[in-house]
Amino acid sequence: MNDTPIAPPALAPNQKIAVLSPSMAAPAYAPAIHEQAMTRLAEITGREIVEYPTTRQLGASAADRARDVCAAFADPEIGAVMSTVGGNDQITVLPHLDEAAILDNPKPFLGYSDNTHLHNWLWSRDIASFYGGSTQVHLGAGPKVDEEQRTSLLSALNGGSLELVNPPLSEDYGVDWSDPKALTETGIRRSTPDYQWFGPTTEVTAHTWGGCVEVLVDILIARAFTGDEKLDGAILLLELSEDVMSPMTYGRFLRALGERGLLGRLAGLMLARPPATSFDYNPPEDVQESHRRNLVELTAGAMEKYNPKAVVVYGVPFGHTRPQWIVPYGGRITLDPRTRTVRAHYR
Description:
This protein is of the alpha/beta class. Helices cover 31% and strands 19% of the residues. It contains 10 helices and 16 strands. The strands form 3 sheets. The protein has an 8-stranded mixed beta sheet with strand order 6-16-15-10-11-12-13-9, with helices on both faces. Helix 9 (247-260) runs parallel beside helix 10 (285-306). The radius of gyration is 19 Å and the shape is globular. The relative contact order is 0.16. The mean pLDDT is 97.
């Protein structure tokens, strides 16, 4: 891969962690979940947690949210920046960012979903980050923090390497935050099938790009993705949100990537196990599995057509399902079809 993004430094002693809401201010909607998340984050990391003016402010302007992002990056006492949750309008925040304030002070940024915008913004400026880690969803909700979340969070902050093993159970969504049970119970968890592998059996270690498919569509339409050649030899990360995108729409997305030539540049592709249910959509289990199977077949078919030499793995939980691994964005991942293992390298 050309122009390899630079890994941000690990946390230095006594540095703090900033918690921001660059998209939706979920803490304002469910403050009890947020407070539990802050307590757990401090306990896991042993660091002081710092919030900014818009962290709990619903309806904050894009300019104000951008100001908080830049202030967190510029502050030498802050060693990492975490997002509370995703949302749907982070694209409006990007024009207000102070590029120098962020690029002169690179540090780990963690978030998923709508935060794909900020990940791509950093990646396009050769700064790596870490995809995953919503304080509201993955730290504050439920009876405890999943071990996958805990270990990959610490690796993203401090460095190291982890095998991304498949958890035995997975949930598409948790308990509604308005319900007090959201603090103590998980959502419905079902058994997870083994990872599925397609393509050659050659081990691949490469840098990554991608994120939430729904957000990637916006990024490509807005021409916020530049430098197609930066995907040469890369691993594409794809995951889908709780909106349960139709297979037809997903297939058209893959076809567009292929016709643009992006799929042909890759060394590998990692598709997360997608949600097949939501608060408003709960079909029978056979319909859920049919939906997932269609997405897998579309992915394998697109890669067979546009890049049969790329290694493809399906089922790694780095997206909207939980438990969730935080994975390098711009950093390196190893896909090994021979041992059927996935390993993330955090520094």
